[in-house]
Amino acid sequence: MPQRSLSHSRLSVPCTTRSRSAVGGKGEDSTVTMELITRRPLTSDLVNLRTGSGSGSGSSNGEVPAEITMPALGSPTLFKLRDRTLLTEEKRRLCGWALGIALFGIFLMILQTELCWFVCGKASVSVFIVRLLISLSTVCLLGLLVAFHYKDIRVFMIDHSVEDWRIALTARRVLSISLELGVCALHPLPLVWLPGSWEDGEGVRRGGGWNATLPSPLVCSLAAWELLPCFLMFLRLYLVHRALLLHSKTLLSASYRSIGSLNNIDFQFRFVLKVLMNTHPGRTLLAFIVCFWLTASWLLTLCERQSEASVGRMEDTMWLIAITFLTIGYGDITPQTTCGKTVCLLTGVMGVGCTAMLVAVVAKNLSLSKAEKHVHQFMMDIKHTKKIRSAAANVLRECWLLHRSGRGRRDSGENRRNQRRLLEAIRVFREARLKQRKLRDHANEMVDLSKLQVMMSDLNGNWSTSYKEMERRIVSMEQKMDELSRAFQETSQLISRALQHRAGGNSVA
Q1: pLDDT, position 2
Q2: CA distance readout (Å), 181 to 141, 148, 299, 413, 466
Q3: What's the pTM?
């Protein structure tokens, strides 16, 4: 940040103070002139307060000149927070522009491949112009990334109070920046267009320059070294997570950052993703699945176009990616190229992970809330209580029937049937009691924490009340002790006076 050209300025502020004379002890008014001197900081930005005896124009009436040396405006000591905020805003703006340029470059790459296949062939001037635009967008993207990392290094210098920017360039940071620039620099190179002839597998087809008719499919197909940069351009989508991090409300909120710093929370993309999955899980998963589905379908289409395969249309590849993502695999459509098989393999792995997250989200949405759990537990408790009462009544009834049928007929069939019924009633009663016990144990696990919190709150309130009562009693005891001490003093004075009076009367007598 540029410094101000003004290196010295003086501001005199008259004010009135009251000083007390050492001889007479009377207060008298005196004027104090404070001079505020603003200088450019050289070695430190400390505030120097200099006071001395009045030797200027007001020395006769007791003026005390004072000078306060303040750092200049724009000093990093005074304005670190402001500079960091401005740099963070610039980083956010640069990241947004970089993501926009990256998406624009990917769109141009898709456009040039579609133009090459459906319109004019890969050696046409239109494809050459689009590739030039891709190169131009790549150069702009690299410039924005360099500016972004420059701002990031300045933020690092402010956070760690360092003066030399080379301290921030650690080996890990240099490797990360180099890898990022190398990934973003990958793109299809603009090749020089040369009119000529192309030969397919069955014969020769002549092209008459830019106005030639559409070439054969083998001429439109791209080689492996031309397909690889097109695929690697999708690696620029890593900028999405940086944009989400810098534009998230969790990073912009001062409350989030202050409380997170107290709890040692690192505000990285992982934390932002967890917050998004907890607040908007359905939208986040849906957006990711749709974007991945379209991207993988287009990549598979581009791979399968290079061979005489049945999977060369977008609708076929979308169907194949969908059934592969869902790990179904009907087998009606299969990829023929190595590139297509690789895309399907990655799609299956991604589908397994997304299915697991989708199951977790659905299970969370289907789970009962705290209030719903309390209602459900209460109703189930009532239901089990009714069953226990009914089972207990059945046990008593069977006992009475067994007792009545067992008078004098111990070996009868009715007696044995009553015994079996009694045992069955006892078993039902025990099962009902066991279910109620398990239900209450589960309910106790749910409310143990809240009960503990209530108990701790009550205990804290009782402690505070007892402490206040103890303080009140101590104060009252101190007051009573003071009263007793005063009473003792008065009593001792009265006794001494009485003794003196008696002694005086005896001397007179």
Answers
A1: 42
A2: 9, 12, 23, 93, 67
A3: 0.58
